[in-house]
Amino acid sequence: MYSQLMTSNFSMGAITGLGVGICIGFFLRRAVFRTLISKSNLQAESKEISLDDAAASDECKLVLVVRNDLKMGKGKAAAQCSHASVMAYRQVGKKDPNLLKLWYLSGQRKVVLKVEDESTLLKLKKDAAQAGLLTSIV
Q1: Which residues of 30-54 are buried (b: 16+ CB within 10 A; e: fewer)?
Q2: Pick from 3, 20, 62, 138: most CB atoms within 10 A?
């Protein structure tokens, strides 16, 4: 019974920890994207992103955040990050397809960070949301 409870808590914690950082990096440099668009004087309806624009945007990245207090193995953390990446891809594809294209053309950069506990993770999520970044918890 105790091991089942621990496994359940572990899974929920892992899911919670990874999800917060899903989209933080995607929108970390949203201003870069807007600058690229304004420089090219494109209408919002007809945004086109070139390879040159993507190369200039080395700040566009997906950031995943893992809770360190969950003590996940490397395989479990990798699996959870994979789930989070797919979720982020779908979320950004719906909300801002042009930003997704910019991320894709700039090399699909990804960063995995760790936080010590749930309260730090929740504060990071709140700060990211206030900055206009898409976030979610897995």
Answers
A1: bebbeebbeeeeeeeeebebeeebb
A2: 20
Amino acid symbol at 106: S
Structural domains in the chain, sorted by start: 2-130 (3.40.1490)
Q: How far is CA 3 from CA 6, 10, 11, 129, in A?
A: 5, 10, 12, 35
Give 43-68 as a 3 state SS string. CHHHCCCCHHHHHHCCCCEEEEEEEH
Token pair belonging to 28: 């970390």
Predicted confidence (pLDDT) per residue in 91-109, tens digit? 999 998 988 998 888 889 9
Instruction: Give residue 10's Cα distance to chain centre.
Output: 21
